[in-house]
Amino acid sequence: MPTYKAPLDHYRFLINEVFDVAQLARLPGMEDFGPDVISSVLEEAARLAEHEIQPLNLPGDAEGCRYENGTVTTPKGFKQAYDRLCGGGWTGLTAETRYGGQGLPHVAGTAFEEMMSSANMAFGMFPGLSQGAYRAILNHGTDDQKDLYLPMLASGVWSGTMCLTESQCGTDLGLIRTKAIPAEDGSFRITGSKIFISAGEHDLTENIIHLVLAKLPDAPSGVKGISLFVVPKFMPVPNGNAWKAGTRNGVRCGSIEHKMGIKASPTCVINFDEATGWLVGEPHKGMRAMFTMMNAARLGVAMQGLGAAEVAYQNALTYANDRLQGRALKGPAAPAKPADPIIVHPDVRRTLLTIKAFTEGARALSVWVGMQLDIMHANPDPHAKQEAEDLLALMTPVLKAYFTDAGFESANMAMQVYGGHGYIHEWGMEQFVRDARITQIYEGANGIQALDLVGRKLPQNTGRLLRRFFHPVQQFCESNAADPTLAEFVVPVAKALGKLQYATVTVAQKGMANPDEAGAASSDYLRLFALVAMGYMWARMAKGATEKRPQAGERAPFSPARLRTARFFMARVLPEAEMRFRQVMAGGKSMMDMPADEFAA
Amino acid sequence: MKILVPVKRVIDYNVRIRVKPDHSGVETANVKMSMNPFDEIAVEEAVRLKEKGKATEVVAVSIGPAQAQDTLRTAMAIGADRALQILADGDIEPLAVAKILKAVAGREAPQMVILGKQAIDDDSAQTGQMLAALLGWPQATFASTVEITEDRVLVTREVDGGHQTLELTLPAVVTTDLRLNEPRYASLPNIMKAKKKPLESLPVAEFGVDTSPRLTLVKVEEPSVRQAGKRVQSVAELVDKLRNEAKVI
User: In this structure, is residue B249 part of a structural domain?
Assistant: First the structure.
């Protein structure tokens, strides 16, 4: 059975030594949330994840969800664990206090998402989807809708879904067919069939609130004619100060998918048959509302990629220390034992360190980006708000695609450390690989993220978003280049940043003349971007690990391991930026010249 | 009824303990610290008694370094109403702890003191007993159930022969065993509330107790490594080895 320990030390290091998380407590409404509070919240979250959620992961995968007559049964123990999550207030961790949430900073929320994903990715889907529904209603719903649904979602008594996909449309939502017909009482009758609906039907909550994309009768064609509706499984009826589930609405689960991973999360076909729904936001403006859900969800998926890598790494590391096999190349390292632990081997070390460099760098990046969410929501200064929003918009596709690609690669490498045992279910490693695989696909496949970055985020406001990233990196490099202890980290990052800037100009120019050029460059460009961002994080962590801080208290904050990992990143991971740069610069001709029929030749 | 719960900050039970190279003690730098698990059970029990309406206030107290505040906040997140921190550096032996707690009991006038039967760092298992003696109160150690009636407390203890039930008049001292309860997960709202609950800090000097150690620590060593097992061919060989090699029969 695999094990899991939440990386609390790493979070403490990031919160106390690398980022000015204390600044969040200076924002209005956030005064209660200093780094010490965030730490104690994460500590309790870790206990829950390690002792209650993680033990359900492997058995949940083996058992899966069961579908019978329109109902879905989740694996043994899920209901109890979910109730415990709700009882502790965790489903409303970052939800607004006026809707019964805890109002904690998003920085704590993203860390919690990582722990949930490491402990049990399939289980984490349920509260995760509710989050998306909560955000959509919060940002686009009427006051009545907010008062009704938000407390029920924040408390976890009801859960939520996002119903976007139909059989004929995934990425291209302009093609949806689900119809919404206005009724006399101001509601709508929703009819259509949605597929791939995570947590669409289950036995954890008494009601499920579907957020559904549909078309009004007078809708223009394409994505400009999509509206968002809230469609509850059971009609809400008042119950004292709260609400309870009333009569059944015309929403039925048609079946659940048999799939590669996250088997304990039901992926449903949801059929709407003249179901009663209410418009959320303006007619035909559903795409905007949907992106509110999607952006939050994309960061959530990024954390799933990181979570999978972390738990896979922890187990691979244990195995590499325990597994005795052969001898070190230079001669026995543990002569008293029948063989050496395989961690003596350079290739095993390369594997482990590649994962470690990813998880720690990615975690830093997630804290940095998570802080932008908080600044965006709570900072009264419109300039600071705009800056944070820009950076968030820019980094969302980068984190989603890179964390999930590298997360899957990491889980796969960690499995390799186990040799044949990695392929066997009971060791748990193959589950991490299967579970991680979906993260590269859903919430916008990674190819789409790359197009979002190159096609939408790069040109936005004549490159304003880009400057929000380039400037702080450049500034950091310039102000620390002279520091002799930091030069070994700063110099390679500055070089990689130069390449990224050069590539950016090239992609923008070529893409303007020929959009296929931008498309051809997009995935490699995103990876190059991510590597520079990771380099920036590692340089900042190296700084945080070397500077003396008098207020650090009894914990010595300086770990030589952090510096060694930073060196490994610079020596063995960052060089990939060079390759990606060359791929970007090579242009799209070699792939676009090939006629479609020659692909089969 | 007021309940006083002394809690100790110790090395987390999950941490692999390392002995310092000079054998002067165990390594505590860079090591995760938590509330002594037996004390956590004591806090949980006190909070449950309050929830049942048997107690009106739960006060947590800790004697130790400034960082023991975290431990007290944890106690308040579980449900203690307020906390008292007694700042003391260095090693405070059970007798000194008991004397300080006696002074605290004099100040707070609790009807009951519940604490862990022992702390997992030094395993002394003395504080509760010494405190009862100093106060002249009845004591029930190693409790597996605690039940309060009017002015008495019924405590079931796990003893070698089975279960022993004691009836004590209040005020009394109770020490907890593992099976008394399973401490809850602190809820988010309670973690937040704990930050705002009153925590009073006092220097140990105020209690006029001599905390200088009565014992001298000679040497701390790692347990010897377990030797590999041997497979024996027959019962006769086993008996022979037990008698002549292991010398246990």
Answer: no
Candidates A10, A43, A314: best to mutate against B (most CBs of B within 10 A) is: A43
Q: Provide mean pLDDT across the span A135-144.
A: 95
Say whether pTM exceeds 0.80.
Answer: yes
Phi, psi of A328 (to 5 degrees): -60, 150
Residue A391 CB contacts under 8 Å (≥ 6 apart), including other chains: A369, A372, A465, A468, A469
Structural domains in chain B (count): 1
Model confidence over A203-235: pLDDT tens digits? 999 999 999 999 999 999 988 999 999 999 999
Compute the distance between CA of residue A582 and CA of residue A578 in angstroms, rounded to an integer: 6
- B192 interface with A at CB cutoff 8 Å: yes
Q: How far is B194 from chain A (nearest CA, A)?
A: 10
Q: What is the ipTM of this complex?
A: 0.83
Q: Would B182 be classed as within a structural domain? A: yes
Distances (CA, A) of A311 to A100, A297, A314, A412, A573: 32, 21, 5, 12, 20
**CA angle at A20 for the pair A15 and A23, rounded to the nearest 5°:** 115
CATH superfamily of A295-444: Butyryl-CoA Dehydrogenase, subunit A, domain 3 (1.20.140.10)
Whole domain around residue B19: which residue ranges? 2-244
Q: Flag whether residue B124 sits within 8 Å of chain A, measured between CB atoms.
A: no
3-state SS of A53-102?
HHHHHHHHHHHCCEEECCEEECCCCHHHHHHHHHHCCHHHCCCCHHHCCC
| CB A503 within 8 Å of CB A520 | no
* Integer Cα distance of B170 and B180 in angstroms: 20
Token digits for A448?
């789409």
Residues B115, B39: contact at Cβ < 8 Å? Answer: yes
Name the β-bridge partners of B85: B62, B201
C-alpha span between A581 and A506 (Å, rounded): 11
Does the CB of A44 have a partner CB in chain B at under 8 Å? yes
Per-residue burial over A477-499, b if 16 or more Cβ lie within 10 Å, else e, is beebeeeeebeebbebbbbbbeb
* Nearest of A10, A107, A51 to residue A374 by alpha carbon: A107
Which residues in chain B have Cβ-Cβ distances shorter than 8 Å to A554? 29, 65, 67
Strand duo B57-64 + A188-198: pairing? unpaired
Residue among A102, A554, A555 whose CB faces B192 most closely? A102
Other Cβ atoms less than 10 A from the Cβ of B165: the count is 12
DSSP lists the bridge partners of residue B61 as B6, B84
Residue B73 contacts residue B79 (beta carbons within 8 Å)? no
The answer to whether residue A430 is catalytic is no
Query: In angstroms, what separates the C-alpha of B36 from chain A's closest C-alpha?
Result: 16
Q: What is the CATH number of the domain that holds B75?
A: 3.40.50.620
Q: What is the pLDDT at residue A551?
A: 55
Q: Write the CA distances from B145 to A164, A358, B41, B119, B155, integer angstroms.
A: 54, 49, 11, 20, 6
Catalytic residue among A114, A387, A443, A517: A443
User: For residue range A545-594, what is the model confidence (pLDDT) as tens digits?
Assistant: 887 555 544 434 467 899 999 999 999 999 999 999 999 999 999 999 99
On whether the CB atoms of residues A273 and A252 are closer than 8 A, the answer is yes
The identity of residue A253, as a single letter, is C
